[in-house]
Amino acid sequence: MKILSYIYYLITSIRNFLYDKEILPIHRVPGVEVICIGNITVGGTGKTPAVQYFTKRLQKMGRKVAVISRGYRGKRKREPLLVSDGYEIFATPKESGDEPYIHALNLNVPIIVSSNRYKGCLFAKKHFGVDTIVLDDGFQHRKLYRDRNIVLIDATNPFGWGRLLPAGMLREDFRKAAKRATEFIITKSDLVSEREVERIKKYLKKKLGKEVSTAKHGVTSLCDLKGNQKPLFWIKGKRVLLFSGLANPLNFEKTVISLEPAYIERVDFMDHHNFKKKDIELIQKRAQNMKASFIIMTEKDLVKLPTDVPMDNFFVLKIEFTVLEDNCLKEIGGANKNEEF
C-alpha cells in the first residue's frame, strides 16, 4: 500500500507542478465567477449540502447561479447534460449521478454535469446567462480557473490519516494542496469535542496561514417516502435501523444518536451504491429481526432506491449545512468577476 501511495503522490505532484508552472493550460470562463466547493480527502466532508447552502446564499445576493458537477458514476450518452433548468428535471439519477440529482430536487437553478467542467460552464453561460458558477467537488480539476477555492475539512477525520490513496484518504499532498485553498471550513464540528475543533483550526490558521470557519450538518426533518414531514421526536426512545451507501456511515449514525433513539443497528453499503430489490429485502428482514420502528436513510440514498419494492416504515433524514463561525465568507459574491476574492 505504501508503494502505491508513493506512486500516487508522484503522479499528483507532477500533475500539479505542470499546472502551477502553466505548462498545462488553465481555462477561464469570461464574465463568470467560479466558486469551487471541494476537499482534499475522499468522501464524507458534506459537499452536497454545502453546495446547496452557498448556491442559495449567492441567489439571495442577486446572483444568477448554476451548479456544475462531473456527475460521478452517472451513465449518460451526451455531455454536457442538463439535469435541471431550475424548474424541471430532465435526467434520471442514473444518468446524472446521485449528487446532481439531489441538487436538482432542492435548488431552483440550472444543474449541469460534464466531465469537462470548462465546457459545462460555457454551456451554463450560453444557455442561461449565469454570472456565477458553483463547482461541486472540483478542487482537483485544475483545467478550470476558479476565483475561490472553499475546501471542506471533516472534523471527524480532518487529514485522511495523513496518507495518500490507497493507504489513506488524501487525494493529494495536504500541505501543497492547501496553498491553492482560499479558505477552509471545518464541517461536522458538532460531532467532535470543542478541543478537537480548536486543534484543527489552530493547525489550519497558524501552520498554513488560512482563514477558517466552522459548520455543522444539523437534522432539519424526517420525511416518509412521499415527502411528508414527521416530528423528529418520534425517534426518541425507539428502535432504529439505519442503512446507507456513504463514505463515512459512522457520521450518519452519530447524527441519529443525537435524536436519542433507544437502540440502533446499521447496514452499510459501498459509497454511491445503487440499491437493488435484494438489498431492500435484506434491510427489511434485518429490521424485522431487531423489531425496528423506523428504517432511516439519507437523501443521497433515497434517489437510488428501486421502484418495484414496497417500503413501509422507510424514512429519510434530511440534513442542512449551517455555518456556525463565519470568519472568511463575509465577502462571498462581492468581488469583481475573474478577480481573486
Structure write-up:
The protein is an alpha/beta fold and 341 residues long. The protein has two domains: 194 residues, 3-Layer(aba) Sandwich (Rossmann fold), CATH 3.40.50; 101 residues. Helices cover 30% and strands 24% of the residues. Strands 1, 2, 3, 4, 5, 6, 7, 8, 9, 10, 11, 12 and 13 form a 13-stranded mixed beta sheet that branches. The chain starts with a helix and ends in a 16-residue tail after the last strand. The C terminus is likely disordered.
Task: Give the SSE map.
Blueprint: H1 2-20, E1 33-39, H2 47-60, E2 65-69, E3 81-85, H3 93-96, H4 98-106, E4 110-113, H5 117-128, E5 132-136, E6 148-154, H6 174-178, E7 183-187, H7 194-207, E8 211-224, E9 229-230, E10 239-244, H8 249-257, E11 263-268, H9 277-290, E12 294-298, H10 299-302, E13 314-325
Parallel strand pairs: 1-5, 1-6, 2-4, 2-5, 6-7, 7-8, 10-11, 10-12, 12-13
Antiparallel strand pairs: 3-4, 8-9, 8-13
CATH architecture of the largest domain: 3-Layer(aba) Sandwich
Task: Count structural domains.
Answer: 2
How much is the radius of gyration in Å?
20 Å
Q: Mean of residue pLDDT? A: 92
The geometry reads as globular
How do the SSEs run, as a string of H and E?
HEHEEHHEHEEHEHEEEHEHEHE
**Structural class computed from helices and strand pairing:** alpha/beta
Unreliable stretches covering 5 or more consecutive residues? 333-341
- Please give the alpha-carbon distance between the first and last residues: 39 Å
Q: Report the biggest beta sheet as strand number plus sense, adding barrel if it closes.
A: 13 strands, mixed
**CATH class placement of the largest domain:** Alpha Beta
CATH superfamily of the largest domain, please?
P-loop containing nucleotide triphosphate hydrolases
- Percent helix: 25-40%
**What fraction of the residues are assigned to beta strands by DSSP?**
15-25%
How many helices? 10
| CATH third-tier fold name of the largest domain | Rossmann fold
Number of strands: 13
